[in-house]
Amino acid sequence: MKLLIDAGNTRVKWALHDGRDWLAQGAVAHADIATLAGVWAAYPIRSVHAASVASTAVSAALEAAVPLPVQWVKAQKSGGGVRNHYRDPGEQGADRWLAVLAAHELVAGDVVVVCAGTALTVEALTAEGDYLGGLIVPGHALMLESLARGTANLNRQPGQVAAFPQGTQDALASGALDALCGAIERMRRRLAEKTGRGVPELLLSGGDAERLAPWLAAPLRIVDNLVLIGLLKVASES
User: Fold this and answer.
1) How far apart (Å, rounded) are the C-alpha atoms in residues 230 and 100?
2) Where along the chain do the CATH 3.30.420.40 domains lie?
3) Which of 47, 148, 170, 205 is 20–30 Å from 63 (CA)?
4) Which of 75, 48, 47, 43 is nearest to 59 (CA)?
5) Is 88 among the catalytic positions?
6) CATH fold of 2-72, please?
7) Which residues pair with 130 in a beta bridge?
8) Closest Cα partner for 83 from 49, 126, 114, 135?
9) One digit per residue, pLDDT tens: the chain, 238 residues?
C-alpha cells in the first residue's frame, strides 16, 4: 500500500492507494501533522512518496509521523511521458510538476493545468507531452490580504462580483477574481496560438477551484488532488 503526501503552503493532503483503488484520504493543517501518525499506523503501508512546498519544519514533522522513510519527489527534466522545458527543474516546486504529470494522464490533448490554493499556478502542456512552463500568481485570499495590509482603506470584506463594480467592496471581489481568471485565460490563449489547435481544456484543482470555475470558459473540469494523482504515477513507475 502506498502513502502519498502533498505538503502545501497551509495544509497537508494525503491519500492511500493499494495498486487498484484509493482507500483513504484526508487533509490537516500544519499544526496537526502529529495526529496523522495514529491514522497511518492503522494501515499496512509499504512505501511513502511525498512532495512539499512547505517549510523544512513541516517536512521534518511528516518524517516523524510516517512509519517508513519518505521518498521526496522533485521536479525532473522528463518523466511520465512529459518533457519539462523549465530552465532549471531543480528550482521548480514539485507540486507543479506532479500536477502536470497527472494532467498528461487525464487529458489527451493540449491542456492548461490550474492549481488554485494559497498561490495560483497555471501550467501549459501540449498533447505531445511538452510542458512549456507556467505562471505563479497570488491566490484569492492572499491577493485580498495583500491589499488589506498594503493600503490605507482596503482592509474590508469583499463584496459581490460584478461586471462594473460600483462600490469598493464589490471592486475588491471582482478585481481579485478577474485577475485570477485573466491569468488563466491568457495562458490558455497563448497555448492555443502556440499549437494552432484551438482552445485547450482546463483542469482545475485546489481549494478555490469551485470559486473560479463558473467564471471560466469551457471546456473545463475540476479534478481534486492533481498532485496526489501525479505522486501515484511517480510511485507506480519507481
Assistant:
1) 8
2) 2-72, 78-231
3) 205
4) 48
5) no
6) Nucleotidyltransferase; domain 5 (3.30.420)
7) 83
8) 126
9) 999 999 998 899 999 999 899 999 999 999 999 999 999 999 999 999 999 999 999 999 999 999 899 999 999 999 999 999 999 999 999 999 999 999 999 999 999 999 999 999 999 999 999 999 999 999 999 999 999 999 888 888 899 999 999 999 999 999 999 999 999 999 999 999 999 999 999 999 999 999 999 999 999 999 989 999 999 999 998 7
Burial class of residue 99 in the structure, from the number of CB atoms within 10 Å of its CB (0-12 exposed, 13-18 middle, 19+ buried): buried
Question: Distance (Å, rounded) from C-alpha 159 to C-alpha 138?
Answer: 19
**Of 6, 21, 88, 95, which is the active-site residue?**
95
For residues 141 and 209, give the distance between their C-alpha atoms in angstroms, rounded to a whole number: 13
Class of domain 78-231: alpha beta
Dist. CA 122–CA 231, nearest whole Å:
19
Phi/psi region, residue 198 (left: phi>0; alpha: psi -120 to 50; beta: rest), is left
Place of cell 510542458: 131
